[in-house]
Amino acid sequence: MKFGIWDVLAIKQFVTVRTRILFCVIVMIAVVSSCDDDDNRPSGEYADGVFVVNEGVFSAGNGSVTHFSDNKVATQNVFGLVNNGRALGDVVQSMLIEDNVGYVVVNNSKKIEVVTASTFESLYTLEGLALPRYIAVDDGFAYVTEWVSFTEPGRVSVVDLGNRAVVDQITVGYGAENILEDDDLLYVSNSFANTVSVIDEASHEVIKTIEVSSSPGELLEDANGKIWVVCGGAFGGNDGALVQIDPSKSKQENAESVIKTIALDMNITYKAAISPDGTNIFYFTDKEVYRLNISDTAKPNDAFIEETNATSFYGVGIDRRTNVLYVADSKGFAGQGTVYRYQLNGDAIDNFTAGIGAGGFAFHD
Amino acid sequence: MIARAVALVCTLFVLVGTSTAQTDTTYLKEVQVYGLPVTSHAVGAKVDQLLAGGIGTLSDKLGAEIPLYLKSYGNNQLSTISIRGTTASQTAVLWNGININLPTIGQTDLAIIPLYLFDELSVRYGGSSALYGSDAIGGSILLGQKRPVFAKKTTLMLDQQVASFGRFDTGIKASWGGNRWQFSTKAIHTYLENDFPYHSPAVGHEKRQNNASVRNYGIDQQIQYQINDHQYIGFEAMYTDNHRHVQPPVTNNDSHEVLDDRNTRVSLKYHNQMARGILTVTTAYVLNDEDYIDGTTSTNRSDQFVLQTGFDRDYGTRLNIRYGVSYARYHGESTSFDDNLVEYRFDGYVSSRYLLSNRWLLNLDLRQALYDGRYAPFSPSFGTEYVLVDQDKQKFSVRGQASRAYRVPTLNDRYWIPGGNPSLKPEDALQVEMGAHWKRTINAFGVQSNVTAYRGWVSEMIVWRPTGNFWSPQNLQEVDLYGVEASFGGNWTKGATSVKTSVQYAFTKSINKAAINPADGWTVGKQLPYVPMHNLRANVFAGYKDWALNVNCDFTARRYTTLDNISMYSLDPFFLANAGISRRMKWRKLSAEIGVQVRNIFNVYYEMLENHAMPGRSVGVSVKMGVN
Q1: Domains of chain A: total
Q2: B416 within 8 A of B457, measured Cβ to Cβ
Q3: Contact A291, A279 (CB under 8 A)
Q4: Which range marks the domain in which residue A15 is found?
Q5: A24 is a domain residue
Q6: Which chain B residues are closer than 8 Å to A232 by Cβ?
Q7: Interval A193-217: pLDDT, tens
Q8: Dist CA A236 CA A227 (whole Å)
Q9: SS3 for B132?
Q10: ipTM for the complex shown
């Protein structure tokens, strides 16, 4: 075979084209991946750090959200600061961030303030709710739990986030509080009763009502896909408990959903947090935080953290980005709250000032 | 609106002139009560007497004229009092000598008490549990009717007022009688749409208040019978009904709460001026019925039955002792109580006044009360007054008082489900105060001045705290009170012209002494929430023949809303000014007075409680007519 000039030219051309293509592809990958990085970190004053949700004093309309940045700067009342001094409202119960949109549930003002999480600029307000408590967002819809009143059963309002309107209302049990979405089912704890309602997300039907312990609240999903219900206990009953339920039994009405019940022999606030790896649950009393491993069968004997300087712990949360445990002290609603920070092994880090009635947290998604 | 205005003009009523041209604002007389052993035993204490009987609530009256603080949830909304930096349940409100603070919450909503139905109103400052029992720590408010005069006389008075924000008041007072019988009827009806516009920084744009309308009506009937020249029996029955749409905070829309209060008060009093002394026996029944409606209705009902006797006796010319015993049965009913609650209370007291000399009066009061089988703190009170200068044109006296006062824990504090704590102790307070009063007349001018300084120590104060998912009360707080109250007044009369001025100033410190949590001290040394450090009221009244002009100003300093005194959580100081002008007319037996009032002339936006709007400028026209 003769290896002529045309052959050389052909090979050169082939190599050049391939190189060019390869070069373009490499550049494209680089560009696309850098675009991804930009999308993952939206810009804004409050794009980093964590948010503390402060209820405020009932009927004083002074609920607020505090921002604690990565370089340890606490900014009080970010909503008022960014939105011309406008008040957030009366009893700010919870906040959820999804796709950089912050949904702030203001219980006694009967509304949800929707903001851009990284800047806290107000986007719009969802009004006309009846004592809303917590919110879950899935697939373009928001599911808001509402107490409705102190004497009527609670419900879940389904909000179409596209046209910002309530499209359905699902009646559940008294005191509908926390809500968790798992596998196209919605779990709602009915805090004035002792049940958890299971709702089919597609049909909006309550397919099962699970009996748990008194005053159920926080719902947490663990490493094995099981759901824990944190029960505060009845007044004077000292019967707080952590109940583990099996989601695979949720579609079978007669199957026993409860796997185990860990009695705590005391009353607790029905808020809790689970470690990012889903193996340890952190619950609390006035000055102590307790840790339960999901495979434990009995309550822990000792407190995990004892904070003698605290007045009245009222909320807990774990930041997945940094693996830091945040515990809010409401200070009895007598003044500004304090948030204590710990490593997941219990070592204290620091603390900072939050707003009145500090009781919850919201973390960037 | 126009039709109503026309109707008003067509119905012209006349009111017999009372001693001041306007019953809206009055002149306070500092009363030094000594020399008359029968009237009051408040020696050494500071007492303000105000003119009652006008249109408006007890809250409106006290707020405008006395430098104390009213925690008001809006215009004509729930309003409780704070005298000398104390809490709403540390002031006793007495009707005919009976404490009408609700046994459930231990407080009175001053905005549901129409002042039109009462003849007399006075405020006694400082601890007075020795005389009036539980709750009289910061002070006592005394409401009542004037002593009957058994003479043949008939009077009729009619009042009508129309004011901004859809306000209409109509009132009627009639009395008639002779040497044996006296009858008196009073009735008042007030409606207020209360849709005032306001501009709150928390909202960002002007809004019109909604869900705040109030309808208040009341009727009072008195019948007195003179048995003979030294004995009489008096009967009084009063009913008030307040239908209020609860004004929501500025941050809440879509509110439909309604609060209905129906109060019935009946008393029968026997008075006998015997040779040995004066005997009074009073029996009364007070019923409070409250419905809170927000979708569903929850009812609270409480009542008390009281039997009180007092015997006032002179020993010689210098000593007078009053002995008193009372029995009360309290009853409370609520969806948050386990059962119907019934409680019995017994009180015994001795009050003595001794004239050491013409110039020096001493007073010692002792009281021991029993509530629900437990002893309330033994409360003595010692007072003294000394007149240094007692001339025709000049008077100067000094006074002092030391007392122990208490507040029994309420039925809600003890039995509310969840959280009630039956083992609570009563709140306990020790107070001392001293004052001086000076009065001078120079030709047509008169000046007077009154200064009081006080110091108090309150302990075992009940605070509701969150414990897990529920709130529960404990005797946690200790508060130090100290302050100065100063008033200055002048008057000048020449011919048909008269001018009166009065300025009242209060400096109040109410300092938290005990941390809620022993570990932290961030609340210690701080001013209690909603206690302004400075309070000023000023009044100018000018009269010329049948005309009268009145200007009234009110300055209230910054109030913190939390125990840690952060300026971010505080209410700005504010200055309000009101003015009014009126004209009297008389022809034969008819007299009339027409007046125009402007309130909040500078249209200031202010709040008494965080995020509860108060109205801006308003105008009112009033007409009074009387026949006698």
Answers
A1: 1
A2: no
A3: no
A4: 1-31
A5: yes
A6: 468-469
A7: 999 999 999 999 999 999 999 999 9
A8: 27
A9: helix
A10: 0.83
